[in-house]
Request: fold
Amino acid sequence: MKYTAAILTVSDRCSRGVREDVTGPELRRMLEADGWEVVSTAIVPDEFEVIKAQLVHCSYDLDVCLVLTAGGTGFSRRDVTPEATEAVINRVAPGIPEAMRSAAREVSSGGVLSRGIAGLRGGTLIINLPGSVQPAAASLNAIMSALKPGVDRLRREEPYEH
Reply:
């Protein structure tokens, strides 16, 4: 199976060019080192409809196996990535953010404040990561070994048997 991914950085400042996105490129490096093909990267502002449209584009038009978002998961009023994700997924995957928050807590005390979620939209797994590079990398590292087996099950055409 070909493992394809898209990375969506959600940040007002990065989208305006005020700040450089360092998290998206690090996530790309990590995925590619694990054999994933990153077919799309984008930087968008913290806007509900824009985030939602990008998630739909990645899952529907690009048909990627995995979409990682970075940013927009905190407590700021503009942090709406989880809500935009919730609006497009069909099923939640609660174990993923549980593992990520635990790992992020080890590198940042704010790691437990991430409101990121994970879920399934058709054949695409969507995962919200923190915007800061260290907690995002720790979060992805904590779940990396489960991603390919999860996508294999998600994309399998016949029913999965235990």
Summary: Strands lie at 4-10, 37-44, 66-70, 91-92, 118-121, 124-129. The domain at 4-151 is CATH 3.40.980.10 (Molybdenum Cofactor Biosythetic Enzyme; Chain A). The mean pLDDT is 94.
